[in-house]
Amino acid sequence: MENKSYRIKNVLLETGFEYNDQEIIKTKTALFCIEIENGQIKNILPNDANSTGIDAKGCLMLPAFKDMHAHLDKMTFGLPWQAVSSKRKTVKDMIAYEQKMIPEWLETSVERTEKMIDFVQGYGTDYIRSHFNVDPTSDLDSLKNFEKALENKKATVEAELVAFPQHGLYYTNTLPILKEVAKMDSVAFIGGVDPYSLDGSIEKVMDQITQRAIDNNKGIDLHLHEMGESGMKTIQYLIDKTEENPQLRGKSFVSHAFALSALNNSEAEKIAEKLVHAGVGIVSSVPFGRMIMPIPTLRKYGVEVLIGNDNIQDHWSTFGSGNMLQKANLIAELYGYVTEWQLSRTLAFATRYKLPLDDNGNQQWPKIGDEASLVLVNASCSAEAVSRISPVKSLIHKGTIVY
After folding, report:
1. How many CB atoms are closer than 10 A to CB 80?
2. What is the torsional sign of CA 170, 215, 303, 25?
3. pTM, rounded to two decimals
4. Beta bridge partners of 46
5. Do 73 and 115 sit in the same domain of this protein?
6. Number of domains within the chain
7. Residue 15: pLDDT above 80?
8. Which of 364, 390, 395, 367 has the alpha carbon at shortest distance from 379?
9. What confidence score (pLDDT) does residue 351 get?
10. What domain range includes position 37?
11. Spatial separation of the C-alpha atoms in residues 145 and 149, rounded to whole Å
12. Which residue has the higher pLDDT, 37 or 89?
């Protein structure tokens, strides 16, 4: 539904924190009318329940959610259910399977990508960083189909694209294709995967990835599942490259970075300081069980930690919920964020650090002139939304009412 100008009444907004003996015990809220025009918030007015307009019925207004790690081009969502096979144990096993299946997947990938976008929008996500395969089997078809789907959904979703050489730069002959894709305006980041274990060289692969990014004014988002020495050396190599090339600062990320999960506190603090100094961020799907990422330590030192669903339904995993509030809830449970203040801060992982209140309880969102990308949630405050994974009742993307 497209509307250039409209009003939403009975909208619940956070207005501050309530204290008792210097402890935050509650989030203050009040009802407002929100006027939206041409994709922006035009006005924020005292509530008038008798006015005309869309009735939010007391739902809490929050910034729309951002999924910062997805693979929309090759999810098996929309195909018949199939659990993960125990026979495929390594990345190279997965590559062999993909080489077999990609031609079949591409036949329906436009339609299924649109269905996946609909699915995550149902949980309030309107912005996605998605990797797309760059490999000899896909050639440019994965990107072309992905772009068709995004064009069809452009009114309701925004995406930034990562060229992802899933099959290695040299393990398969992918480098020539990556060089071509890196020049395209629609591509924002150059990706990579496990340089040492897949291609046999950290330096050879990382030099190519960073040079493609520098030459074409792109960012970097590298998949790194490797543990131990090779994992840490790869992270350090990207840090060094970013410090040598300041244009990569703030635009370079390591996705997964599982090697960090094995560090002790002192080691995690040292690498966090290096990451911040170099402007390198970490992107995580928040693993748990055998490995727990040091997200609190990274954030303590100011590392930008982005969160995404990664797999929702594919041949790698079928456990992704597609729900960024659920990811925030998982972080709160894993790291013991239980107070009103802590839970309200944890919402930042779902919104890329856009929050209604700052750390001191000052109202900072929404403001007049802000982009009208928002959700209406059945919750009394951010803390409850995170703790209860509250249902999203409405999504608005740049003023367009998605549902």
Report:
1. 5
2. negative
3. 0.94
4. 32
5. yes
6. 2
7. yes
8. 390
9. 98
10. 5-58+356-401
11. 6
12. 37
